[in-house]
Write a structure and sequence with these properties.
Length: 405
């Protein structure tokens, strides 16, 4: 992906409110957010409407789960001064954009999203033959597009949803970004950049259109990003003119896939609430010890002097996440020669997990005891998010000709 100077890229990500988070969330998602919040303008939100798409029969837990999750976000160090934290349903503009996008989204695009059939299979006990469930990736597209997010940190399984958001944005721009005198307006806008830059823009545009040179396209985009004096309308025209015949009202987002340490669960499968193999971020130290001490090891090590193979042991996967190279060689050496016992081996993990959790647990208690502080943080985040969402929606209404004031 190109890096465009001068303009902070906007990152948006959401999480369903599942209640208290576990170490898998921390190592898979939150540590990534912690880094991103200092590098980008970040919007992080609780996707409570998304929870309804599968849990519409039990909406009662959503609000308690939302607060528990927000406490965990804050406790790990997501900083409300660096990132905007908000709750989806408190920014109802997402719903209006979702509605408008639903008018122009072909049904087949949604039916073909692989998670649609997969999840229905997986969650057989629920009736997911609903309108809301089919539309959930489109709601996600609205979540993203309403902030004109450039980058969306997601797991592998969500990349198809970002693809859908890109296609929807492209279709929207194609349908509603066309103006009768578009080319003329774009040429006029290019001249407003001054002789030198106007000429450079035209050359880069010609190069991209004639030869498909993506470098020229990226350079031209960077050039536009650097222009301070263009109106929003002119910017959109010039971005759109680079590639075709319409304004870019809703920019296409990119997935931000960051390879992360794979956090195993206590049984060696992926850590997940539905597998019952989790350690929660705020788990009491005694429970952490108990869980780790009793977790399975290489079944070949029945007795203390049976040698083992770390690759066949879930504890080894924890060492991948938590241990230094020195400790890891100590494990390999000791395990394969029956030189160490499994409890000894696990002790390193117990200490590392407890050390990691201690400050988080402490901060979580502080936030839990001051829930008004958490509420205020979210109220503020919602307001800031709403300002951005309103601005986009106003452009969208204009593009559709739906402004009555
Ligand atoms: N669908 C995501 C999940 O289930 C959550 C989500 C909703 C999201 N809207 C989003 C993630 C927008 C990124 C961007 O995990
Ligand atoms: Fe697993 Fe460590 Fe025991 Fe080897 S020594 S089986 S790696 S717990």
């Amino acid at each position: 992906m190109s890096v465009i100077p001068n303009q902070p890229q906007r990152v948006l990500s959401g999480m369903r409110p599942t209640g208290r988070l576990h170490l898998g969330h921390y190592h898979g998602v939150l540590k990534n957010w912690l880094r991103l919040q200092h590098e980008y303008s970040c919007f992080f939100f609780v996707a409570d409407w998304h929870a309804l798409t599968t849990d519409y029969e039990n909406p009662r837990d959503i609000s308690a789960n939302t607060w528990e999750m927000l406490i965990d976000w804050l406790a790990v160090g997501i900083n409300p001064n660096a990132a905007k934290l908000f709750i989806q349903s408190q920014v109802p503009e997402h719903a209006e954009l979702h509605l408008l996008l639903s008018m122009m989204t072909p049904l087949g695009w949604l039916e073909r999203v692989p998670t649609y059939k997969d999840q229905q299979e997986k969650l057989k006990e629920k009736d997911l033959a609903t309108y809301g469930f089919l539309g959930y990736p489109l709601l996600q597209a609205a979540d993203i597009l309403i902030y004109k997010a450039t980058s969306v940190p997601v797991g592998e399984d969500q990349v198809v949803h970002i693809e859908l958001a890109r296609e929807v944005a492209r279709r929207f721009n194609h349908l509603y970004g066309r103006e009768p005198d578009f080319a003329e307006k774009a040429e006029t806008a290019a001249r407003k950049m001054g002789k030198k830059y106007g000429k450079l823009y035209s050359e880069l545009r010609r190069k991209f259109q004639e030869t498909g040179d993506h470098e020229a396209l990226e350079t031209a985009r960077a050039l536009l990003e650097g222009q301070q004096n263009l109106t929003l309308g002119d910017r959109e025209r010039l971005f759109g003119y680079l590639e075709g015949v319409s304004r870019v009202i809703l920019p296409e987002p990119h997935p931000l896939l960051t390879p992360m340490a794979k956090m195993p669960g206590l049984d060696g499968q992926k850590m997940s609430k539905s597998y019952g193999n989790t350690i929660s971020l705020r788990e009491e130290p005694e429970a952490v010890q108990q869980k780790l001490k009793t977790m399975p090891t290489d079944p070949a090590r029945v007795r203390r002097n049976d040698p083992g193979t770390p690759e066949k042991c879930p504890v080894w996967q924890f060492h991948q996440v938590y241990s230094s190279d020195d400790v890891k060689s100590w494990v390999v050496q000791g395990c394969t020669s029956a030189g160490i016992g499994c409890l000894e081996c696990k002790q390193h993990i117990i200490e590392a997990v407890l050390a990691e959790q201690a400050p988080i647990r402490e901060r979580a208690v502080e936030f839990a005891n001051d829930i008004n502080l958490v509420r205020n943080i979210v109220v503020e985040g919602c307001e800031e998010a709403r300002d951005v969402a309103r601005a986009t929606l106003s452009e969208v209404r204009h593009a559709l000709g739906l402004q009555f004031k």
